[in-house]
Design brief:
The structure holds two protein chains of two kinds. Chain A is of the alpha/beta class. Chain A is built from twelve helices and 14 strands. By secondary structure, chain B is an alpha/beta fold. Chain B has a single domain, classed as Thiamin diphosphate (ThDP)-binding fold, Pyr/PP domains (Rossmann fold, 3-Layer(aba) Sandwich). Chain B is 45% helix and 10% strand. In chain B, helix 2 runs antiparallel to helix 12, helix 2 packs parallel to helix 13 and helix 6 runs parallel beside helix 7. Classes of the chains: A alpha/beta, B alpha/beta. Bound molecules: thiamine diphosphate and magnesium ion (MG). The site of magnesium ion has 6 residues of chain B, from strand 5. Thiamine diphosphate sits at the interface of chains B and A. Chain B: It catalyses: N(6)-[(R)-lipoyl]-L-lysyl-[protein] + pyruvate + H(+) = N(6)-[(R)-S(8)-acetyldihydrolipoyl]-L-lysyl-[protein] + CO2.
Chain lengths: 329, 352
């Protein structure tokens, strides 16, 4: 058992993968000498040298595109996009190239690369540095998508991503880097693509991922004090999506809520709610409720920033109302 | 094509009698002091976040280029744009309030340091996407020509933006169409921890602009008069349909943002870099040429310090934007605002 931060776990996953597999390289802005904008790649350039830890100019489309070409020719690149907000700049390389090469070329070759990036609110970083854009990725067939919420998953999901045959977009949350956990990294991890049931309860199922897991767990503890027990599902990967676990739990409990930091309209929560409504219809006692980000850009003002994404208060309140056991005000 | 080296341009200062140096000095001092107060706002925990990029060391770029601009001219800036905006006439208190994320700020606390703008002053917006504001000046150039407004549009960006393809697309369009546009690259030697020569094999940045057919110059940003002179040539050239590019070499005195202590560069380099001080240079020159006495300059400094101190008080006293304002300005004022998540949840849960 060791105590690690989310950041350290990511760093260790990269270092272990690089030690084990000489074809793994890192490429991105400030990943080398600077050690990564959020410190994830700190000192890896010292350990593995500038041939494998490659600092680039500020050229996102070509960083991702170079990773695609490297992946097609025998390397296993981990490209870093400093903020997920820059994904739009790379969307051709990601969406038209990385995602479609296996398919367009009739299965001749895959693109086994990882695109590491981070997103979310929590630093007053403003409208262009605080978004949750996972829906862009989830909406693109051919891309896998992992979003770790815990320290152990930061490690294991990144190690697993680096063994996958297809491009994986790996989105960290900027508010989680300093989170600490005591973990046993030798314990067998859940397999790639499996959701984790973080809590069991018979009153409702809350499906979530990334940082919102912590808000949901906090809310679930408050709910328990009021006699409402929630099952909490942490998706871990959004593609592959472990809908079997969701279906099984929702069918057993009969009530579901989906929580996501991304904007509500046409977001990940929308997809999940639609699918639960379709597939679990006969078992649902109430409509599926989404708690998600407001359909607005993120402000630099702390008040507006925190007000525009779900927090434990709104999650708990909504769950209470959904279960019809709202405490008398 | 004018590819003028810093050395060649040094002789071209205007005569002392019609010198604008006293005015430039004041502008640069205001920028320097404002940026110092931004640092203070952060230390006092009153800024919205730590992503605050100070333009200390780059004052001559802001003051010199701004001096060549006319009221109808428009511009975009990068994330290190406080100084440029101040030089164009911004009210420092409203800027500081924006940096504090307050309602009284230029963008009502929504934008912050990296997204400050004021259409009234021709500021089409600062940008947190490196290179993100560059192509807008091509459009503004088309617009100026369409409306025969005589306006020039200027993109200010850092050396780091020379890594972005969008710069080259924009330079090509501007040259191809002969637009009233100037690209101003403030080369402070670093993009975060990456030194310019670690980001490009050819650091003579004006050469690539010249290759597209732009009027291109590189100048030393220690001397505001040299910058102003080059900018005047290029901006007036652009007004006449010959778009330009100006690289201004300077040194980023401090870390990239407030939390960066620049561990990637050594102290000797920083000490030498901070000697390339455009404010100190202008001050020495004013005294040496007899344009101003030490005491007069001290009085300017004191005056500016009082003005900028007040911006902190203003910001601390200012109120947070009201929560409901988050839905405002996603769309035009007469359009319906996005429906709050709570309202949507209420509707779902309203059924019995
Ligand atoms: C598209 C994009 N990529 C990366 C970043 C992260 N980033 C912010 S500022 C910066 C360095 C910019 O350097 P430069 O253009 O020289 O401007 P300076 O900070 O030196 O003023 C980087 C890499 C960003 N904001 N946008
Ligand atoms: Mg720079």
């Amino acid at each position: 058992m060791i105590e690690l931060t989310y950041r350290d776990a990511l760093r260790k996953a990269l270092a272990d993968a690089m030690t084990e597999d000489p074809s793994v390289i890192l490429i991105g802005e400030e990943v080398g000498r600077y050690g990564g904008a959020y410190g994830v790649t700190k000192d890896l350039i010292r350990e593995f040298g500038p041939e494998r830890v490659i600092d680039t100019p500020i050229s996102e489309p070509s960083i991702v595109g170079a990773a695609v070409g490297a992946a097609m020719t025998g390397l296993r690149p981990v490209a870093e996009l400093m903020y997920v907000d820059f994904i739009g700049m790379t969307m051709d390389q990601l969406g038209n190239q990385a995602a479609k090469i296996r398919y367009m070329f009739g299965g001749q070759i895959g693109v086994p690369m990882v695109l590491r990036t981070q997103g979310g609110t929590g630093r007053s970083a403003g409208a262009q540095h605080s978004q949750s854009l996972e829906a862009y990725v989830m909406h693109t067939p051919g891309l896998r998508l992992a979003m770790p919420a815990t320290v152990a998953d930061a490690y294991h999901l990144l190690r697993q991503a680096l063994r996958r045959p297809d491009p994986v977009v790996f989105i960290e949350h900027k508010a989680l880097y300093t989170m600490k956990e005591t973990v046993d990294l030798d314990a067998e991890p859940l397999p790639w693509g499996r959701a984790a049931v973080r809590r069991e309860g018979g009153d409702l199922v809350i499906v979530t991922y990334s940082r919102q897991l912590h808000y949901v767990m906090d809310a679930a503890n408050r709910l328990a004090e009021q006699g409402v027990e929630a099952t909490v599902i942490d998706l871990r990967t959004l593609n592959p999506l472990d809908f079997d676990t969701i279906r099984e739990r929702v069918n057993a409990v009969g009530r579901a809520m989906v929580v996501s930091e991304g904007v509500m309209t046409a977001g990940v929560a929308a997809e999940l709610a639609a699918r639960i409504s379709e597939e679990c219809f006969d078992y649902l006692e109430d409509p599926v409720v989404r708690v998600a980000g407001e359909d607005i850009p993120i402000s630099v003002s702390v008040a507006l920033e925190t007000g525009s994404v779900p927090g434990p208060g709104l999650i708990a309140e909504t769950a209470l109302r959904l279960t019809g056991k709202r405490a008398a005000a | 094509m004018t590819n003028t080296s810093p050395i060649e341009r040094t002789g071209e200062r205007p005569g002392a009698s019609n010198s604008r140096l006293p005015e430039f000095y004041r502008t640069m001092r205001r920028i320097r002091t404002f940026e110092e107060r931004v640092g203070e706002l952060f230390v006092r925990g009153q800024s919205a976040g730590s992503m605050l990029h100070l333009s200390i060391g780059e004052e001559a770029a802001a003051a010199g280029v701004s001096a060549a601009m006319r009221p109808q001219d428009t511009f975009t800036t990068h994330h290190r744009g406080h100084g440029i905006f101040l030089a164009r006439g911004a009210e420092p208190a409203r800027m500081m309030a924006e940096i504090g994320g307050k309602e009284a700020g230029y963008c009502h606390g929504k934008g912050g340091s990296m997204h400050i703008a004021d259409m009234g002053l021709g500021h089409l917006g600062a940008n947190a996407i490196v290179g993100g504001g560059i192509p807008a000046v091509v459009g503004a150039g088309l617009s100026a020509r369409h409306h025969a407004s005589g306006a020039v549009s200027i993109a200010f960006f850092g050396d780091g933006a020379t890594g972005q393809g969008v710069l080259y697309e924009s330079m090509n369009m501007a040259a191809l169409w002969g637009l009233p546009v100037v690209f101003v690259c403030i080369n402070n030697q670093y993009g975060m921890g990456t030194r310019i020569d670690q980001a490009t094999a050819n650091t003579a940045l004006h050469e690539r602009a010249a290759a597209f057919g732009l009027e291109a110059m590189s100048v030393d940003g220690i001397d505001v008069e040299v910058v102003a002179d080059a900018a005047r040539t290029l901006v007036e050239g652009a007004r006449a349909g010959r778009p330009g590019f100006l690289a201004i070499s300077c040194y980023r005195f401090y870390g990239h943002a407030r939390k960066d202590k620049s561990p990637y560069r050594d102290e000797a380099e920083e000490t030498a870099g901070r000697l390339r001080d455009p404010v100190g240079h202008a001050r020495a020159r004013l005294i040496e040429t007899g344009l101003a006495a030490q005491a007069e300059l001290d009085a300017v400094d004191a005056d500016v310090a009082a003005e900028m101190d007040a911006t902190i008080d203003f910001t601390i006293a200012a109120t947070e934007p009201p929560l409901a304002s988050m839905f405002r300005d996603v769309y035009a004022p007469d359009e319906p605002e996005p429906e709050p998540v709570r309202t949507r949840i209420d509707r779902v849960l309203a059924r019995d």
